[in-house]
Inverse folding.
């Protein structure tokens, strides 16, 4: 089932890529923000590995989804929490699975309702096929090809596990 | 019975929000939890979320109200809905066809939700029963029947201050129980949340007949009524609803039932004082109490916005398809 290797190894690899990218682009003192729920789990590890000064932020994008009137409200919406003003800051946005791109679209809209960041970088544990919007990650843990009927889901936070499921 | 079921769809979700009775504890808790997540919206630079973008919400007020209408309007705007305020000052009866004509005209403008305040009990139910299927109705106060969003924001305030265990709480509702739709909704809500003890405290003339059947213990003496309570909810004397001699004088009422710092010593030391507003200072309570450290009256106003956002968005969701 778990042919993704050790998830901690993937995260460590992402941390390496991220610190190279931060050094290369000069985007120092970034603010890291995880997207609920899986993105926050991944972000907790990355935040520690990169020793980022600002506390970790979290974003629940439920109120920004584009399918609200179709699938309704998520009953457990956790308030989004950003540790500081994001005006003129470099943001590193973390998600577990980049699929259609709609979650990231919603997250970008929400972030801009908190302020005007200097830049936003996206890091995803898994990048899968099936994009519906022109959104790409800067940092990717693993890339996988899945057919439209297949879903990959991260469970956690301890242990972190990835599972591929087929929906009928 | 079917009156109350009108507000819940076949999947047990909120469709309209008309009264507290008929709600279960799970749904009430879901409303409170949803409100909790909306409270964070005020921390944003842009105090808005796009949930109800493109929806049109009509504040249909047949009875004057500033605070309730304003907080509903603000809640709708924070959900990015467009808001229309319509004040219809008219006679006290629901005028069957006239009201229906008004509804049909508004429906023809493709609106999505009515927020209804009316001096007659049952007005919001009537509108919900007669409006187009895609429209949700929220009761913003009907006669002396119910004011469910006020009760929900009071429960939200109590939960924030005292924690989620209502079973450990003694709550006293003091004042004009007879005319108060707020009190009726509060008593229902407190009982659904399994509050340890619910009391009503009022002179006999301001209590309905068979007050015990409301689901609360009845006191006619303020000191006994607030003894050891954790929460005191004061009600406004509704002078506009009083036709007749309910009270000898406001002065005498204040002497006997007005809340002062001296009388508060009988309550629990960390008692919380609430009031739905507007306050008649020196009638229901002394300014020292209203503005004092135990008062959460202004927090109630703030919480009203988050709670109304929760109710509106829940009633507006799941309209286009039955599946999750």
């Amino acid at each position: 089932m778990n042919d993704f290797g050790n998830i901690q190894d993937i995260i460590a690899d992402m941390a390496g890529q991220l610190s190279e990218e931060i050094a290369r682009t000069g985007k120092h003192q970034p603010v890291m923000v995880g997207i609920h729920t899986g993105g926050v789990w991944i972000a907790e590890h990355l935040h520690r590995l990169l020793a980022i000064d600002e506390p970790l932020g979290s974003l629940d994008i439920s109120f920004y989804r584009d399918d609200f009137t179709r699938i309704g409200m998520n009953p457990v919406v956790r308030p989004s929490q950003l540790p500081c003003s994001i005006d003129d800051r470099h943001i590193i946005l973390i998600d577990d699975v980049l699929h259609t791109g709609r979650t990231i679209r919603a997250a970008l809209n929400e972030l801009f309702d908190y302020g005007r960041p200097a830049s936003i970088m996206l890091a995803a544990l898994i990048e899968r096929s099936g994009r519906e919007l022109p959104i790409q990650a800067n940092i990717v843990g693993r890339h996988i090809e899945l057919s439209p009927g297949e879903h990959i889901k991260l469970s956690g936070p301890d242990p972190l596990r990835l599972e591929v499921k087929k929906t009928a | 019975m079917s009156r109350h079921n009108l507000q819940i769809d076949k999947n047990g979700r909120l469709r309209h929000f008309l009264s507290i009775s008929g709600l279960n504890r799970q749904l009430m808790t879901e409303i409170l939890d949803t409100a909790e997540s909306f409270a964070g919206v005020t921390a944003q630079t842009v105090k808005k979320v796009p949930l109800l973008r493109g929806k049109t919400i009509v504040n249909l007020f047949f009875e004057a109200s500033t605070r309730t209408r304003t907080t509903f309007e603000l809640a709708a705007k924070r959900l990015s809905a467009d808001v229309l305020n319509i004040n219809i000052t008219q006679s006290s009866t629901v005028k069957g066809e006239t009201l229906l004509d008004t509804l049909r005209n508004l429906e023809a403008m493709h609106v999505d939700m009515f927020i209804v305040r009316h001096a007659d009990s049952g007005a919001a139910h009537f509108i919900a029963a007669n409006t187009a299927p895609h429209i949700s109705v929220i009761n913003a106060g009907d006669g002396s029947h119910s004011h469910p969003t006020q009760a929900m924001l009071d429960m939200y305030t109590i939960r924030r201050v005292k924690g989620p265990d209502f079973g450990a709480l003694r709550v006293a509702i003091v004042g004009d129980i007879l005319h108060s739709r707020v009190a009726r909704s509060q008593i229902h809500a407190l009982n659904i949340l399994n509050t340890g003890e619910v009391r009503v405290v009022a002179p006999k003339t301001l209590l309905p007949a068979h007050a015990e059947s409301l689901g609360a213990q009845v006191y006619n003496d303020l000191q006994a009524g607030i003894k050891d309570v954790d929460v005191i909810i004061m009600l406004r004397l509704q002078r506009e609803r009083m036709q007749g001699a309910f009270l000898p004088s406001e002065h005498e009422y204040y002497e006997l039932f007005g809340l002062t710092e001296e009388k508060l010593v009988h309550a629990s030391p960390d008692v919380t004082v609430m009031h739905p507003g507007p306050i008649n200072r020196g009638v229901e309570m002394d300014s020292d109490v209203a503005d004092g450290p135990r008062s959460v009256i202004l927090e109630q106003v703030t919480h009203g916005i988050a709670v109304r956002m929760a109710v509106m968005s829940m009633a507006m969701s799941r309209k286009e398809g039955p599946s999750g």
